[in-house]
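The instructor's notes for this session suggest beginning with a concrete chain rather than abstract definitions. Hand out the sequence below and ask the class to guess, before any prediction is shown, which regions might be ordered.
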Amino acid sequence: MRARATSTSQATRVGRHARAWAVGIATALALSVVAWRGGPAARATAFESRRATSTTRAPRPASPCGRSATPPAVYDHVIWIWMENKSSNQVIGSAQAPYETSLAAQCASASKYSSVGSPSLPNYIGATSGSTHGISDDGSPAEHPITADNLFRQVRGQGGKARSYEESMTGTCNLGAAGRYAVKHNPAAYYVGGSDRSACQADDIPLGGVKSGALRGDLETSTLPTFAFVTPNLCNDTHDCSVRTGDRWLQRWLPVMLASDSYAAGRTAIFVVWDEDSPMPFIAIAPTVRPRTVLGAAVDHYALLRTTEEMLGLPTLLGAAAQAPSMRTSLHL
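After discussion, reveal the predicted structure:
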């Protein structure tokens, strides 16, 4: 009796599979007939419908770091995001910064990252040129025109593109502060040698919003520049507003960057940097960065400049970057 019941059960299952197969064939034939009668447009629609049901995009890995074992010899894109005026213990491990704390654990941070000047402007200039050029204030570009070589010009000189995305800036290469836009946090506006000024007019642009605008568009179309300098406004960079505000801003923006095809390709790195006060938070994000890395060596903005120049394959180390330590090996970049 058990053998007969088993045979009956198997026959039932086979019958169900056969009926499902027959229904599937009949449906496909019906779709084909409808498509044929509807002409080329209908046939194309039917094809796309069938392809959509059979093709599924592979999900992105949950963590942005620890995905790959071997760093690229040269990166396609390096992105800097600059925040403001916080020491490390005000951010990493703070209840006001859960996203940044989690990101530091998923990727890498540094315990002895220092500024190279004071107040803000000397740090932005130092990080992008290898020298503060004697600046010790937050004066305007008219007060501090700089003809020296710089990272933006270096990148252009090698055939790449350097672009600054400035939140709350109302036009291209604005040389004066307005509202929550601070020109002192826009280093490209201070360089005037060679093609610096025309490049500023072309590639120093408003950031836009997280759903639309310049940076979102470049991410969606895989047209990120070789070097990107991203500046939140005076509130979102925590200069005038809370650590929680900056944490939420990064939580809105970084997932968009990390979900991009450019990042998924494995040759994009992102650094989240604070200008001062030492020791500052520092977060390094790249597919080959080992999770929970904490760099214990003393480093500063000049080390960031050197590391970026090396990652982009630039032939010259600017100013103090030549003597600064590289972070590539320690951060597995």
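Then share the key points. The first strand starts at residue 77 and ends at 83. The beta strands are 77-83, 108-110, 113-114, 162-166, 204-206, 227-231, 268-274, 282-285, 293-295, 299-300.
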